[in-house]
Amino acid sequence: MCERIPGPMTNKKTPTSTSRRAALRAQQEAQAAAQKRRRIIAVIVGVVVAAIILAVILGINHKSDGSASSTQITPPSATKTGVYTLNPDKVKKDAPTVTVYQDYQCPKCKAVEDALGKQLNELSTRGEIRLQYHTMTFLDQRIEGENSQRAAMAAAAADVVGKYEAYHDAVYSHQPKEEGAGYTDDQLRKEFASEAGITGANLTRFQHIYDTRQTEQFVNEANDKGLHKMQDLDVPGTPAFAVNDKLWEGWEQLGNNPTPDELLKAIDAAK
């Protein structure tokens, strides 16, 4: 109860008592309004704190589920457009640039790799050609499992530890006979890495990059840019070759296992 304001006992309200009562009511209303504001602020703060906690929990779960890490990597042997260059320091002056468009799930890509892969690698090692790979993943659009993307991400992670060429070859050497059967994470993380010679601290780093999907953005953008480039070249699918950025279809007339010099002669003719 409010303390009474002292004054003479009378039924008639004086101007002074009336103003005091009005001031008291105003004070009570102000206190009530302040209490209401404090309650509203408390509710808002509670909602914000709960949202922050939820965001942290979702963020932890997001990463633990193997979603993309915020730290994304462009492999050192590749451009941001997704093109890997093998042995760039060995390329001779005026050597032709050979670009191979490939998908790790594509059976015909494996057939080409079996027929021409070693010869291309040798010509690249000799500096006779600038060998480039543009890895596509569009087969994932019709084959369940994201096997093209996961293989491409693993190859990109292998490039970070200096083993792109060996890992690339290991993936193709183990491509399933049945299209769409795909690759297991165990194969991509362990078996192919071992075959490519990724060991010790490099293996730990490779697996961390793969597990946290740090090359996912690079792989996705490489596919998008590759599709635009293939459209410009009027190429319907993989595998596809370009020599000095122009479509080269002569590789299909080479037959199986030409010698490196025979392959180089055909490439030079395409220039």
Automatic annotation (TrEMBL):
Membrane spanning residue stretches: 40-60
InterPro entries: Thioredoxin-like_fold, Thioredoxin-like_sf, Thioredoxin_domain
SUPFAM superfamilies reported in the protein's UniProt record: Thioredoxin-like
Statement: the UniProt record of this protein carries the keyword tRNA processing: no
Pfam families, alphabetized: Thioredoxin_4
Assigned keywords, A-Z: Disulfide bond, Membrane, Oxidoreductase, Redox-active center, Signal, Transmembrane, Transmembrane helix
GO MF term list: oxidoreductase activity
Full protein name: Thioredoxin domain-containing protein
Originating species: Cutibacterium avidum ATCC 25577
